[in-house]
Design brief:
This protein is an alpha/beta fold. It has one domain: Carbon-nitrogen hydrolase (Nitrilase/N-carbamoyl-D-aminoacid amidohydrolase), CATH 3.60.110.10. Helix content is 28%, strand content 28%. The strands form four sheets. The chain has a six-stranded mixed sheet with strand order 5-4-3-2-1-16. The chain has a six-stranded mixed sheet with strand order 8-9-10-11-14-15, covered by helices on one side. Helix 1 packs parallel to helix 3. The radius of gyration is 18 Å and the shape is globular. The structure holds N-(4-carboxy-4-oxobutanoyl)-L-cysteinylglycine. N-(4-carboxy-4-oxobutanoyl)-L-cysteinylglycine binds next to loops. This is Putative amidohydrolase. It comes from Shimia abyssi. Belongs to the carbon-nitrogen hydrolase superfamily. NIT1/NIT2 family.
């Protein structure tokens, strides 16, 4: 199975981002991949709630979702849309940060709403309150594909190992971690977190990432870490996309999942304990 990770610098203009991703998906197909992955908030990075209200749509009306699903069918590709910011029916007006898995016939086979919200003061100049704009999801999601089971997570979820463990113990062989990791925490933690999740779960971890300086023009600027990555179940980094936008192709051998798990069967060694 050949994967392709799209590393992009999403702007706050969904139409522009869609144009770029569509063009890249044609290159993905030409490169012989079966399965493409895009980062968190592929459709729009903006720090302005007013701007998001003006350009984001509900899932039913979202043009990025419609167009990318059609393109999946046209190109015969499976597609993980890392996430889309979407309007919801919630009274408080919060958006959903929702990941989609689309099959090669253009059908949505799974959707997952990010559970853990990035409410963090990275530094005195850089504070995030994701839960102000987005409402958290409440359900872990596992999807069937022709290659195996895929567990869906998003970005900050990577810091909550019990979610990944639950996905793996329910049968996941691949875990997706689409991201818009902050530049500062990315440099310190990104690779280590991804490798730890792969080693603990015996899963392939596939993490397509936003990169660079985002022209979130109507508000505070955002800089993301890049380094889209695929990690094998034994912990080896199979690909690291660096910090430039582009496509990274990776060939996976799913047999490595069983191999790693039979060498270290920790996933079956949980024991109950009291306390602390
Ligand atoms: O803001 C949006 O539009 C979409 N959401 C994101 O980009 C989110 C919340 S700001 N980013 C993260 O979760 C980064 C986590 C991270 O950097 C870490 O765990 O260190």
């Amino acid at each position: 199975m050949r994967l392709a990770l799209l590393q992009i610098t999403s702007s706050d203009d969904p139409e522009k981002n869609l144009g770029l991703v569509s063009q890249m998906l044609h290159e993905v197909k030409a490169g012989g991949a079966d399965f493409a992955f895009t980062p968190e908030v592929t459709n729009c990075i903006s720090t302005s709630r007013a701007h998001q209200n003006a350009v984001l749509q509900t899932e039913e009306n979202d043009q990025t979702l419609v167009a990318l699903s059609e393109l999946s069918a046209e190109l015969g590709l499976w597609l993980s849309i890392g996430s889309l910011g979407l309007k919801t029916q919630d009274a408080d007006g919060r958006f959903a940060n929702r990941s989609f898995l689309v099959n090669d016939r253009g059908e949505i086979v799974s959707r997952y709403d990010k559970i853990h919200m990035f409410d963090v003061e990275v530094s005195s100049e850089e504070t995030y309150r994701e839960s102000d704009g987005y409402r958290p999801g409440q359900n872990a999601v596992l999807a069937e594909t022709p290659w195996g089971k895929v567990g869906l997570t998003i970005c900050y979820d990577v810091r909550f190992p019990h979610l990944h463990r639950a996905l793996a113990q329910s049968g996941a062989q691949i875990i997706t971690v689409p991201a818009a990791f902050s530049h500062v925490t990315g440099a310190a933690h990104w690779e280590t977190l991804l490798r730890a999740r792969a080693i603990e779960t015996g899963c392939f971890v596939v993490a397509a990432a936003q990169t660079g300086q985002h022209a979130a023009s109507r508000g505070q600027k955002r800089r993301t870490h890049g380094h889209s990555m695929v990690v094998a179940p034994w912990g080896k980094v199979l690909a690291d996309a660096g910090d430039e936008p582009g496509i990274t192709f990776v060939d996976l051998d799913l047999k490595e999942v069983d191999k790693a798990r039979s060498r270290i069967p920790a996933l079956t060694h949980d024991r109950p304990f009291d306390g602390p």
